[in-house]
Amino acid sequence: MQGICVLGATGSIGTSALEVIARHPDRFRVAALTAQRNVAALVALARRFAPPLAVIADVAQLPLLQQQLRAAGLPTRALGGAEALVEAVLSPEVDTVIAAIVGAAGLPPTLAAARAGKRILLANKEAIVCAGALLIEAVRNSGAQLLPLDSEHSALHQCLAGAADASRAVRRLILTASGGPFRNRADLSAVTPEEACAHPNWVMGPKISVDSATLMNKGLEVIEASWLFGFPPQQIDVVVHPQSVVHSMVEFVDGSVVAQLGTPDMRTPLAYALGFPERIESGSAFLDFLALGHLTFEAPDLSRFPCLRLAYEAARAGGSASVWLNAANEEAVAAFLARRLPFTAIATVIEATLAQAPTTVPRSLQDVLDADAAARRYARALIGATA
Ligand SMILES: NC(=O)c1ccc[n+]([C@@H]2O[C@H](COP(=O)([O-])OP(=O)(O)OC[C@H]3O[C@@H](n4cnc5c(N)ncnc54)[C@H](OP(=O)(O)O)[C@@H]3O)[C@@H](O)[C@H]2O)c1
Fold it and tell me: What string of H, E and C letters represents the secondary structure of the chain?
């Protein structure tokens, strides 16, 4: 029986993860659930899964959480604050951590889980983008297990299974991208948050939806794939595949290409990682090839979607560049969602911020947090001047 901690339990990935977990009560026990400030949703999940621990990161919400858990007659212990997220993953009742917080805020508990040798199922791509070296080193040193939840990286993990000496055998990794809601829209100057969040194939949280619309999501995924599978960014290509059925591919030196396919439903990669190395039911629909008709592929348009180019540049630059890229993106996306920044200025803010990134390599969590804070200060000033 695996004890599971879901970081970001009230979000899109968190709730999908709990749906898969609920299908397998013989395998999984919910040991801890966390949220940022949505007490009502956290208490509803606590009623359903009766975890020993519930954490609310916004400490101002802790009294409300305590009161509602008591009113519901639940024995769940409540904690508050960002440090309590780390406490949750370190609980001896937790074997597996589902890292599904959005943004760099998820880094400290994810890194703590890696250092403690836990099994980590990673959706929180910003954590590995900011601190890939630290995270991979911690996993190696502690004997932790790191499995991807992003559908593309889950696909790559499956395509690479059984490849002996992947560094010689693989010619390139090919990440597929849906192209987002604006694949065919020429003028992006008047895009609204509602339009950007209306993804054609996936229902996701607002931040990743905007990232998909700018293609920054794919850029972050290139950096994530580079860390997870140990290939340089120039060996990782992106191809636009609007149907989101082929979730990614690996091309081998003999000319073979191995692809992983499935309906666009995050419960499939969640079930793959939760059950690994076994296969377990996810609740996703099965692919109907005859209904699909055709699958198409095209090149990404880097002039309309410069964020993908910027992510490649950050990956190649090394140093603190990925931290600065991510922080600028988080700030710019938040400003766009708050209608304080036009959609097309997201890339402008990121490019100008990235140009300031120092070449020093962050050696510790504190270095990463400092770089993140410095980049956010710079990006916020730019956004203030633009708004
Ligand atoms: N959604 C997808 O299909 C998908 C696919 C692949 C990868 N991912 C990745 O998975 C992560 C989560 O995405 P999502 O779409 O599930 O996001 P989401 O729906 O916005 O959910 C985010 C979760 O994180 C919590 N949270 C937000 N800020 C926090 C903070 N500062 N400290 C602690 N907890 C915080 C939220 O709590 P509240 O509810 O209280 O705000 C919520 O539980 C992202 O890194 C995303 O890139 C998502």
Answer: CEEEEEECCCCHHHHHHHHHHHCCCCCEEEEEEEECCCHHHHHHHHHHHCCCEEEECCHHHHHHHHHHHHHCCCCCEEEECHHHHHHHHHCCCCCEEEECCCCHHHHHHHHHHHHCCCEEEECCHHHHHHHHHHHHHHHHHHCCEEEECCHHHHHHHHHHCCCCCHHHHEEEEEEEECCCCCCCCCCCCCCCHHHHHCCCCCCCCHHHHHHHHHCHHHHHHHHHHHHHHCCCHHHEEEEECCCCCEEEEEEECCCCEEEEECCCCCHHHHHHHHHCCCCCCCCCCCCCHHHHCCCCCECCCCCCCHHHHHHHHHHHHCCCHHHHHHHHHHHHHHHHHCCCCCCCHHHHHHHHHHCCCCCCCCCCHHHHHHHHHHHHHHHHHHHHHHC
Q: The pTM is what?
A: 0.96
CATH number of the domain located at residue range(s) 2-148 in this protein: 3.40.50.720
For domain 318-387, the CATH class is mainly alpha
Domain limits of the chain? 2-148, 318-387
What is the residue-level pLDDT of the chain in tens, covering all 387 positions?
999 999 999 999 999 999 999 999 999 999 999 999 999 999 999 999 999 999 999 999 999 999 999 999 999 999 999 999 999 999 999 999 999 999 999 999 999 999 999 999 999 999 999 999 999 999 999 999 999 999 999 999 999 998 888 889 999 999 999 999 999 998 999 999 999 998 878 788 999 999 999 999 999 999 999 999 999 999 999 999 999 999 999 999 999 999 999 999 999 999 999 999 999 999 999 999 998 889 999 999 999 999 999 999 999 998 899 999 999 999 999 999 999 999 999 999 999 999 999 999 999 999 999 999 999 999 999 999 886
Ligand 1 mutation pick, 34, 101, 244, max ligand atoms within 8 A of CB: 101
Query: Which residues approach ligand 1 with their CB closer than 6 A?
Result: 8-14, 35-38, 57, 100-102, 105, 123-126, 150, 202, 204-205, 207-208, 266
CA of 263 to the centre of ligand 1 (A): 22
